Amino acid sequence: MTNKELIGLYDQYVMGTYGRFPIAISHGQGAKLYDFEGKLYIDFASGIGVASIGHGNPAWAQAIFDQAMRLGHVSNLYYTEPGGRLAEMLCERTGMSKVFFANSGAESNEGLIKLARKYSREKYGPDRSKIVTLLQSFHGRTITTLAATGQDTFHQHFFPFTEGFCHVPAGDLKALKAEAGEDTCAVLLELIQGEGGVLPLDPAYVQAVAAFCKERDILLLLDEVQTGVGRTGTLFAFQQYGITPDALSFAKGIAGGLPFGGFLTNEKCGSVLGPGQHATTYGGNPLGAAAAQVVLETLTDAVLAEVIEKGKYIQEKVLAMNSPYVTTVRGLGLMIGIILKDMGHKELAGKLNEAGLLALTAGSETLRLLPPLTITYEEIDAGLKILREALTSPQ
Ligand code: PLP
Questions:
Q1: Last residue in a domain, options 238, 271, 298
Q2: Within a 10 A sphere around the Cβ of 97, how many other Cβ atoms?
Q3: The domain spanning residue 35 has which CATH number?
Q4: Are 198 and 176 part of one and the same domain?
Q5: 368: Cβ below 6 Å to ligand 1?
Q6: Mean pLDDT split into 10-residue runs, the chain, 395 residues
């Protein structure tokens, strides 16, 4: 197959819901990807934060193969070993009590929303269903998670959206307190708003929100779909924020490329959802759970410490380029935003793609980097060379 033939197949048969770059990927190794004609791309995108331990990881591939030969799927009517072991690993490494397994980020957030509404309804009655989220947030593309998302551009076409969400400016404690009244069951936050533009919340603000929520028994829910699974240099970002949420969602990098996600809860919320009240056919499936165990085993404390170091290295190198098009660089670990001026983020991403570097965009002016967490310095330098060329040569 050629690049052109593959793109032709998509054009003919796949719905045009994605603004794809004209690149057909054939295979990859580590943070290197290749198209069907052998062109090399350095991967600073990792499939939007999913290929957390790189492409073609032998331990990951072997675990999936071994599990597939043993048991592929039997449903949640029965107990399976990978799910049990993964649940133990996640709870032990986060201090949380219970997990529910899902298949994607949006679906994991739906679970958080159901959890909060049921918790509050049982304890305080039906008039406490509102969930406060932040402007510029992104929580998924189901009807309810679109409603939770604090960006007007997502509140179109699909009316009526789910009721009971309101959005306040990030960092504005007064606004949050004003909205989160007697009718509110939860506050839902991304600690670093990924799609919104790689916008980290201030730890003092997050701690104040956590204290306010605790005082009122409003559940503090974290959407760690993008920040979780080592992306910021700890297994979850909350571990660097001096707070513990009541529940948090995860997905993306957890199974290194297989569709998998879920949410973790503290003791207080661990038995809110009972039999028949929340379920999904594939949730916790053995293949994904086996893959996720390899991801967690790979993300040792030493590897996580390197995520922080590599993130700092990239940020420093980008700043040192002294590009006239860069306003600032921000982020945590290997979740990095390069804020641009006088250069469109989409145009830059396209230019980088052509030159052999895959990078993402976010917000209205951010080039977003989410490389595999196991990227080597040699791969980082190769990517930075392409980035430097694009950011320092005249447009
Ligand atoms: N929440 C956050 C913070 C995300 O970044 C995303 C995806 O980008 C989602 C939820 C939705 O995840 P999914 O696309 O797996 O449904």
A1: 298
A2: 15
A3: 3.90.1150.10
A4: yes
A5: no
A6: 97 97 97 98 98 98 98 98 98 98 98 98 98 98 98 97 98 98 98 98 98 98 98 98 98 98 98 97 98 98 98 98 98 98 97 98 98 98 98 89
Q: Is the distance from CB of 209 to CB of 173 less than 8 angstroms? A: yes
Residue-wise pLDDT tens digits, 167-206: 999 999 999 999 999 999 999 999 999 999 999 999 999 9
Which residue has its alpha carbon closest to ligand 1 atom 5? 226
Q: With a 6 A CB cut-off, is 306 part of the ligand 1 pocket?
A: no
Contacting residues for 64 by C-beta, under 8 A, at least 6 apart: 258, 287, 290, 291
From the CB of 190, is ligand 1 less than 6 Å away? yes
69 alpha carbon – ligand 1 mean position (Å): 31
Q: Is the domain of 151 the same as that of 207?
A: yes
Ligand 1 touching residue 251 (CB < 6 A): yes
The domain in which residue 139 lies consists of: 59-298
- Ligand 1 centroid vs 106 CA: distance in angstroms? 6
pLDDT at 207: 98
Q: How far apart are CA 45 and CA 51, in angstroms?
A: 9
The total number of structural domains in the chain stands at 2
Place of tokens 């207080």: 268
Task: Name the residue of 46, 252, 282, 335 to mutate for ligand 1: max ligand atoms within 8 A of Cβ.
Answer: 252
Rounded to 10 degrees, the C-alpha dihedral 228/232/236/239 comes to -160
**Residues written for the chain:** 395
139 C-beta closer than 6 A to ligand 1: yes
Same-domain status, 139 and 80:
yes
